[in-house]
Prior knowledge:
Elements: H1 4-12, E1 17-22, E2 25-30, E3 33-38, H2 43-49, E4 59-63, H3 67-76, E5 81-82, E6 92-96, H4 102-116, H5 119-128
Antiparallel strand pairs: 1-2, 2-3, 3-4, 4-6, 5-6
Helix pairs in contact: 1-4, 4-5
Amino acid sequence: MPTFEDVAHIALDLPEAAEGARHGHRTWVVRGKVFAWERPFSKADIKRFGDDPIPDGPILAVSVDDLQEKEAVIAAHPKAFFTISHFDGYAAVLIRLTKVTKKQLRDSLVDGWLASAPPTLADEYAKRHRLS
């Protein structure tokens, strides 16, 4: 099972990525724009689950390019990737670290970084890693 230390290692290997904290939780940014963050559930989130089971374990939020990508990622890996009503209309997915593979986690963090990085920096990275 990946941990937040694995998240940090992967995220900080990306160009110009930095770690900080917002609301007391670890956050990863590229040139000041957040692309991943620890996302524990608030009391309001828990209340919204009602009788539905609350996803267990540590939760990571990661930006995605757009809402279509969000839907595609969740559909492709529904045990590891999900969303909550608080994220409706917001281009980010939630990831259960207890259910995601390290490859899925890495791919998600890279995609989140690409979605958040300035276009020239993202294009350079994509060309260098043959992602385009």
